[in-house]
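thread: overnight batch results

M.L. [08:02]
morning all. the overnight job finished for the chain we discussed friday. pasting input first so we're all looking at the same thing
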Amino acid sequence: MNTIVRIAHSDDHQYAALIADEMNLSASKRGTGISLRTPEYIIEKIDSGLAVIALNADSKEWIGFCSIEVWDHQRYIANTGLIISSKYRGNGFSKDIKEKLFDLERKQFPRSTIFSLTTCPAVIHINAALGYKRVNFGEVMSDPWFHQGCHSWVNYVELMRKGPESGYVAMVYVPEEEAALLPLWGSRLLGKLKRLRKSKRAHAGQRQLVPQLAINR
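M.L. [08:03]
and the structure it wrote out:
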């Protein structure tokens, strides 16, 4: 099977109803109580130029879809509505879509912090490979920007209903130059990253000294 993963455009309007139906079915099974997604909503995301779609190049069927949510004047962005057609699940297409979307995010919003809130182990693994880091759940929940900017997010209703028991893992990708503008958890995250890199450089330096010491002896 030949597949295509690309930025969605107007030719993909034909898939909007199918994508919306799959999203609504998935939400119903999860019991999130979120508002239904309409074909018009999907088309709006497509026309914004901030959505990625995966297609079966042979059958012309849609495989998966995801888009970008932007708030606080592009200071924060997040992936929203990641969905894989039930027919194609379990084949790694989520990873392909997330990677393509990440490239789009870094090009369109190079200074934005990318936020992820998920319960899916596969998404957590993909995020980690892309450079996302976990942040303290309580600190994220205490930040006003989260509640102001994310109240329309599909996961928000379930998160507020279940609280810490929801099992969500908070992760962020933080551009270094923007860390000073972030809430406290962002600054702490950058500090951890810098300490980790410093530690790795120190260990590398120690390994390089070992042969020199042996020669001197």
